[in-house]
Amino acid sequence: MENTTPRTLATTVGRRSFLKMGALSVAFGATSGFASGSVTRVATEEEVKNPFPESKTVKTICTSCSVGCGVIAEVHNGVWVRQEVAQDHPISLGGHCCKGADMIDMIRSEVRLKYPMVKENGQWKRLSWEDALDRIATKLAEIKKENGPDAVQFLGSAKMSNEQAYYLRKFAAFFGTNNIDHQARI
User: Fold this and answer.
1) In whole angstroms, what is the distance from residue 106 CA to residue 100 CA?
2) Share of the chain above pLDDT 90, in %
3) Domain locations along the chain
4) How far is CA 155 from the centre of its chain?
């Protein structure tokens, strides 16, 4: 029969090891203070007040959901560098949820998909929007012809406005199916 008692790791440190670690941390702290003395400088008052002097502000809305909270984006050389909550926005009234407060990080993400892609022979390949839409239309037509219109399901999103949801529902109806739902129920 196997021994099933849990084993514990030793969490004690001997006196000699403790003194070695202490001496090493003091030496590291002292030398790092000398090494980083001229690496940074104190920001000037003007830099603190306006770090991007040639930037412009753009009033926009958060695209995280369909509420449409107000965002004031600061753009410098075509790059979104900061954001503020639009205090005068009639929907959000100067507030944001956690997703809206983090919108700039999602927009600037290195892994954000910015154009249509297809995987061919194990490699991702960029497509034009026209080619991507043609491929989707062709595939939908094939599925409908082979299996009927109920072989597909259309999913809405919290990012859709009422008008976009209406168009999606109409598209599903014209396609010939009632298979439509919202992504939040999945």
Assistant:
1) 10
2) 30
3) 54-107, 114-144, 148-186
4) 21
